[in-house]
Amino acid sequence: MRKRVAIIGGGITGLAAAVRIRDQAPPDTDIIVYEQSGALGGKLRTGELTGATVERGAEAFLAGAPDGTESAAVHLARRLSLGDALVHPSAVQAALAVGGRLEPIPAGTLMGIPRAYDGDDRDTGTPLLGPHDDVTVGALVRARYGDDVVNRLVDPLLGGVYAGQADQLSLAATMPALAAAARTEHTLTAAVRAAQAGTVRVPGRPMFATINGGLSRLVEAAAAASGARINLGLPVHGLARTENGWRLQLAAAPAGHVEDVDAVVLAVPATAASRLLRSAGDTSGSAVVGALSYASVALVAMALPSDTPLPELSGFLVPPTEGTLVKAATFVTRKWPAPGPPDASVIIRASLGHAGDQQRLQHDDTTLAEHAHTELGTLLDADLPPPIAFWVQRWEHALPQYRTGHLQRIASARAGLPPGLALAGAAYDGIGIPACITSGEAAADDVSKYLACP
């Protein structure tokens, strides 16, 4: 009998799940994607500025996995016949903006945590963490290396990824290799070295990659390869168990319109997932998922005259101690060089906002862009010319903030899910594109096994 699978959420997580189900399930399986917005891709959205490709969301992904294999994002790109479109950033380095200076990011650190330290990192005879302990990144590093390492190194690097602070983010969720090492090693230097040693580096493989022409190509190719029926602008408002599967209550449809399916992948942000779990009768899972918090961010891209001087860098990160709304900046035309006319604009993309900064982002686009322009000039110690053009992209409640105990709570929520229902996405398993793809594929595997049961 023909099976039907609903995937609620059309970001890269949901689309990766759709492709995986298409590859594993019987050919006649009906896959239906519901996306409440008018576009697929979620935080993957390619834009342009003065004719140049500039991402409005994530700009790249890790090219390798910790075990030395290609990352899930590279693997998916190859599956979608985009292997030849993979490109890598230039070799120029990034910096830290500290006290009006741009300083090199120290080499050999693990998310800013040095592998060697001259201070008091004594061996007390016991592992840093117990077998099931979780602490914040900041708590561990401050206790061993002091405040300065956290404030000047760890916070800006973690903030560049999560828009959060080391004192709030779970070690186990954000740095699992270090957490595992800390359960056996007695010093932080030993734990950092063990975590680094466990990551296989492939000679000649760049750390990051993206898709030539923009990450929206990955989205479009995944949607096409899935063979799914795509419903844009159609939220799912309710989810109920039936004798043979699940009934979806659809919004923006005729009164009482429903869709019956055999299995469901929830690949939506935590607030929407919590609501749907509650409607399905899973009050415990709904409470866990609903308690997850997010940080809001904004991106400001500006095109400057072609003769604007910039440092020989790919960009820089800003420690929260600097007090700026700008937390990072990418020199797009230097990091991702592309053929163009000699007078092509110099493009900078600034990332604004940390967890708790939402009110500071509540300016109109022009004011926010002017603020970013002023702060960039201060951080670069340069008199930047006015932009030729700019755009602002806001991402409300975009980046999950993993608190201590996150992994255990999510595991508990998943263990209590009703059969034929799977959770996937950045809220649970990691923020990066490879993590989202892996999460979607794991949910697809669960659903495929469920559908195969007699």
UniProtKB/TrEMBL annotation:
GO BP annotations listed: heme biosynthetic process
Signal sequence region: none
All copies of domain Amine oxidase, residue ranges: 12-447
Recorded GO CC terms: cytoplasm
Subcellular location: Cytoplasm
InterPro entries for the chain: Amino_oxidase, FAD/NAD-bd_sf, Protoporphyrinogen_oxidase, Zeta_carotene_desat/Oxidored
Cofactor(s) annotated in UniProt: FAD
Reaction(s) catalysed (UniProt annotation): coproporphyrinogen III + 3 O2 = coproporphyrin III + 3 H2O2
Pathway: Porphyrin-containing compound metabolism; protoheme biosynthesis
Main location group: cytoplasm
Gene3D superfamilies: FAD/NAD(P)-binding domain (3.50.50.60), protoporphyrinogen ix oxidase, domain 3 (1.10.3110.10), Protoporphyrinogen oxidase, mitochondrial, domain 2 (3.90.660.20)
Biological role stated in the UniProt entry: Involved in coproporphyrin-dependent heme b biosynthesis. Catalyzes the oxidation of coproporphyrinogen III to coproporphyrin III.
Name recorded for this polypeptide: Coproporphyrinogen III oxidase
